[in-house]
Amino acid sequence: MPIEVHYDPGSNTLFGRVIGDPAPDEIIASFELVRAAGTIPVDADIIWDMRAMDFTALSIERLRDIVKRRKKLNTYRADCASAYVVLGPQEERMIRLMIAVSVGVQRREAIFRSMDKAKSWLRGLKTPQTTVTAPIGGGTTPPP
């Protein structure tokens, strides 16, 4: 199968590995199977490992079709983040184009060249941020 999908409940992250040149129907079918299982929370973030994907057949028309289908899938996903792991600048440009024309699909998306960096980014989104205030006169006040 050109797309392998698995869920890690410990990190509440869905992992999608794209291999070769999958058709848009294959991409959607993979996620419909996961969704139908009913075991994945709607707020699960996703990491797309696209390092084994063949980007040479990805035309603008095909990209538009994928975006249209993403919008359909977005109707049942909560405010999730998507990280894309690619090999190089050409693949990164294609994903940036997809994100640019996907207005209204995702709120937080980023592209990385390593799986570790993608995982780290998602962990950072899930970690509450501590605010440090600076009192008048300089210095810092430790958080409460």
Automatic annotation (TrEMBL):
Domain of life the protein comes from: Bacteria
Protein name per its UniProtKB record: STAS/SEC14 domain-containing protein
